[in-house]
Structures are given as structure tokens and as C-alpha cells.
């Protein structure tokens, strides 16, 4: 569940949000539609904590997982695969995966109850964020956008601007 109450956000003197409220229940599916510059990306940045609201509150239940890919992929020049780039939407789960991997390496020389407990906590959060299914979700979304299974491993920079923006 995501709840936004009396949200205020300004860019300089321009108010993008003035007392905005929104409630998204589990299993709701929503779309953000609006003209350029009306605050769609800003709302997502507020939700993921990239921006801080000027007023109001944003709360999410702990099982909520948000992914956000920057819309500026046309200038993103990388040899990484399109799948790898899409997986960056799961930033928090990927960060947890890195922490889990480090603990597993540390187990080789320092196996302690504290590390076991820390690993269990990280794995629980990782699972709650959909970490075990994130690659399958990314593949499903990309294939739904028209990319073939083979294209998922191609570098992002090999695609035209239109295909990158998909």
C-alpha cells in the first residue's frame, strides 16, 4: 500500500504538488499520464526518495517494491545488456543481493551466529522485494515491450532511440 497525504513539492517558485493526496491499495494497477513537465517523473522520484517533499507525507508498507528507470536512456551510452539496464529498476534488491554475496564470502573465514542472523534478515528483505523473481519480471516486461529473448543480452547502445525508450 502507498499513501500520499497533503503532498507539497515546488521547483523554485513553481508548485508541482499542492496538497495532493493519493492512496494505492495492494493489487491496484495505475498509470501516470500527463503532459511534459507536469510532475510524473517527480512523483516517482519522491516515492523512491530521490527528492524530498516540501510538505505532507508519503508512506508505504514494507512489502512495496518500487522500481524507476530514468527516462534519459537515449543518452545512456553503455555496453551493458538491455536486461542489465532494466534490472537497475530493482536497485534496492540488487543492493541487498550484493550484501548477501559479501556475507556468503565472509562465511568462508568467519562463520558466526551474528552473520547467520544478518544473512537471514537480508534474505527476508530480499524476498519481500521480489529479489528472487526480479530477473524473470524484467524479462517478462521487456518481452512484453517487443524485445526477443535473444535481444535481451544485446548492449543497450545497439538499439535505436525508439527501442531504448520502450
TrEMBL record:
Cross-referenced Pfam families: ABC_tran
Domain ABC transporter: 18-166
Signal peptide (residue range): none
InterPro entries hit by this protein: ABC_transporter-like_ATP-bd, ABCF_ATPase, P-loop_NTPase
GO molecular function terms noted in the UniProt entry: ATP binding; ATP hydrolysis activity
Name this polypeptide is given: ABC transporter domain-containing protein
Protein species of origin: Tanacetum cinerariifolium
Amino acid at each position: 500500500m502507498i499513501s500520499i497525504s497533503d503532498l507539497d513539492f515546488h521547483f523554485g517558485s513553481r508548485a508541482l504538488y499542492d496538497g495532493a493526496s493519493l492512496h494505492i491499495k495492494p493489487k491496484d494497477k495505475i498509470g501516470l499520464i500527463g503532459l511534459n513537465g507536469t510532475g510524473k517523473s517527480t512523483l516517482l522520484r519522491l516515492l523512491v526518495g530521490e527528492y524530498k517533499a516540501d510538505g505532507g507525507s508519503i508512506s508505504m508498507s514494507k512489502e512495496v517494491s518500487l522500481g524507476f528507470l530514468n527516462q534519459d536512456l537515449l543518452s545512456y551510452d553503455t555496453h551493458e545488456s538491455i536486461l542489465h539496464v532494466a534490472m537497475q529498476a530493482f536497485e534496492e534488491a540488487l543492493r541487498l543481493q550484493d550484501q548477501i554475496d559479501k556475507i556468503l564470502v565472509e562465511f568462508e573465514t568467519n562463520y558466526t551466529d551474528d552473520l547467520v542472523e544478518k544473512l537471514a534478515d537480508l534474505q527476508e528483505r530480499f524476498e519481500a522485494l521480489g529479489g528472487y523473481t526480479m530477473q524473470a519480471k524484467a524479462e517478462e516486461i521487456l518481452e512484453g515491450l517487443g524485445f526477443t529473448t535473444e535481444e535481451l543480452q544485446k548492449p543497450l547502445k545497439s538499439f535505436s532511440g525508439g527501442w531504448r525508450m520502450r
